[in-house]
Amino acid sequence: MMLLLYQKEIQSETELREVYPVMKQLRPHLDEPAFLELADKAKKTENYRMLALYEDAVPVSLAGFVQRVTLNQGVHVWVDDLVTCEKHRSKGYGKKLLSAVEEWAKQHGCRTVELSSGTQRREAHRFYEEKMGYEKASYLYRKHLK
């Protein structure tokens, strides 16, 4: 049996609700109302975009990204979120979706695609470096404000 794979940009609240279970695997601290609120705010304030890959009408992988302009990187894409549903990993879906983000970036005049990944996510690091050709370019530092 042949699987139907397709991708689409997520835009409506209904579509966000549909992909929430996949995003929850990457962002377990977000309940659905918080996810909907933050996704809407990011879209309105930063032009956040989300692409989803579907397998037979079921979302299996997500990529959330923004186009940015900085003095350091010029015009580029920053990937905020990239996740493939745990039971669908190692099928090439993450590669397909991140490649789609890269193509979007090229079409919109971006010089690079950047992302950060938690230090504990060793499998993700291996994917980015070995399968996608990304290089470790820096450390990300964070300070939580009280």
Automatic annotation (TrEMBL):
The keyword Acyltransferase applies. The keyword Transferase applies. Keywords: Acyltransferase, Transferase. Pfam families: Acetyltransf_1. CDD domains: NAT_SF (cd04301). GO terms for molecular function: acyltransferase activity, transferring groups other than amino-acyl groups. This is GNAT family N-acetyltransferase.
